[in-house]
Amino acid sequence: MDKEAAVLILSGGMDSTTLLYDIGQKYEVWALSFIYGQRHVREIQAAEQTCRKLNVSHEVVKIPNIFIGSSLTDDIPVPHGHYTEESMALTVVPNRNMIMLSLAIGYALSNKIYHVFYGAHSGDHAIYADCRPRFVSAMQAVATICDQKEVHLRAPYLFITKNDIAVIGAQLGVDYSLTWTCYEGGEYPCRKCGACVERSEAFAFAGMVDPLLEGENK
Question: Does this model's pTM top 0.70?
């Protein structure tokens, strides 16, 4: 039996890549990545590599660079430390997920696809309003009335942590060497930004070694 199709917003980071492997067992995945003026494209490159490896359809969409005031899009130093620290608010890109989800829903409907996934998780809730349950619920409500056909918005990791996602990834055999999480775009992860700290904790929790850091010591 042919698999039902689904659109996945694939950043190339740890969460969305794990979700790609996860839902790929049930769905034919059409992956979408976005260039929105972020300071580097390492994640996009990682997404392309993963999709080639898994033979997954992949489109890269360029959004006009309209976002300001974030360390991810402006010449503002990336804050260091854990996500729970107040300084991590500098990494907020205003309304980014609503814009990306709207485009993903339009892309899905254009291709007669009625499932859209993204990788929000509970660790995002404190900082990112567009990763919280009430945001997902509101977007789901809109997705059911924006067209003649209802689109089902899915965020299956919404109530679990990045640690849990790492465990799922270990079970699925996710190739994390083809992911990029660091907010910086260097040859190796900086190990200091909130994204790096959270990734490191997740790998440790799952009993894994981050393959991106293995290469650093060679």
Answer: yes
pLDDT band at 218 (very low <50, low <70, confident <90, very high): very low
206 vs 35, which has greater pLDDT?
Answer: 206
What is the distance between the alpha carbons of residues 174 and 22, in angstroms, rounded to a whole number?
9
CB 32 within 8 Å of CB 185: no
Q: Give domain 4-217's CATH architecture.
A: 3-Layer(aba) Sandwich (3.40)
**Tokens standing for 163?**
């640690």
Terminal Cα distance for the chain, rounded = 46
| Helix H or strand E segment including 4 | strand 4-9
Joined tokens for residue 176: 């994390």
* Continuous segment of H or E residues that includes residue 97: helix 96-110
Do residues 130 and 89 make contact, with C-beta atoms less than 8 angstroms apart? no
Walk across the sheet containing 152-154 and list its strands. 57-62, 27-35, 4-9, 115-117, 152-154
Element (H, E) at 203: helix 194-205
Picking from 137, 159, 216, 158, the residue whose alpha carbon sits closest to that of residue 182 is 216
In angstroms, rounded to a whole number, what is the distance separating the alpha carbons of residues 90 and 58? 30
Q: What is the mean pLDDT of residues 190-200?
A: 89
